[in-house]
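Tokens for chain A. Residues wanted.
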């Protein structure tokens, strides 16, 4: 081996102490602009989620309501403390029917909400005597009541755009036999489902009690 090859070997094997070390790629930080972009994207995701939740909340409350039964006027159909799902949209698309259970603002105090059963529709004639409810002269068959009414009501005609309602617990209910009709504009919707407690969960029956036309 000659001197030139020996010098070449030593030059390649020993690093130059004055040379700059290569950059440490594992320690490279995220550029500030990229950090801003990630933060902006995260904020937009949160805003979109909140906006979507708000829209869903508004839609759900536009087409439905949830109420808690407070009192005994609808027993045995509904018991105090039960939670009921109310369809707000149904009477925007159609009209109430005999036997529907509805939620409405109490005409004498709109801050209160009542729940009762529709007995008379506009144009119907309603009469109560000898423990029987008659609509247009026809005695209603009412398997949902707790007991026959122990009061009497003279023949009354239901005005246009109003409803005659009674509680299923006839003798323990503040309803149309005491304070009159319910204007349609006070009706919130139809009670369709008990959703709490679980052992009472189920659809609220609206049996066909359609009487003959007057």
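Reply:
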């Amino acid at each position: 081996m000659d001197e030139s090859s020996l010098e070449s070997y030593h030059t390649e094997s020993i690093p130059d102490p004055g040379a700059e070390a290569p950059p440490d790629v594992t320690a490279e930080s995220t550029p500030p602009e990229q950090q801003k972009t990630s933060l902006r994207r995260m904020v937009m995701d949160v805003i979109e989620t909140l906006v979507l939740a708000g829209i869903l909340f508004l839609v759900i409350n536009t087409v439905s309501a949830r109420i808690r039964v407070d009192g005994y006027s609808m027993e045995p159909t509904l018991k105090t403390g039960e939670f009921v799902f109310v369809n707000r949209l149904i009477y925007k698309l159609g009209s109430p029917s005999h036997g529907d259970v509805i939620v409405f603002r109490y005409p004498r105090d709109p801050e209160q909400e009542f729940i009762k059963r529709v007995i008379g529709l506009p144009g119907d004639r309603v009469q109560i005597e000898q423990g029987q409810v008659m609509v247009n002269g026809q005695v209603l068959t009412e398997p949902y009541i707790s007991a026959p009414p122990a009061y009497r009501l003279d023949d009354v005609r239901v005005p246009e755009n109003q409803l005659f309602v009674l509680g299923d617990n006839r003798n323990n209910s503040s309803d149309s036999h005491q304070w009159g009709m319910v204007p349609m504009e006070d009706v919130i919707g139809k009670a369709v489902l008990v959703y709490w407690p679980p052992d009472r969960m189920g659809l609220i029956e609206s049996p066909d009690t359609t009487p003959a036309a007057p």
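The first helix runs from residue 3 to 13. Helices lie at 3-13, 32-63, 90-93, 176-179.
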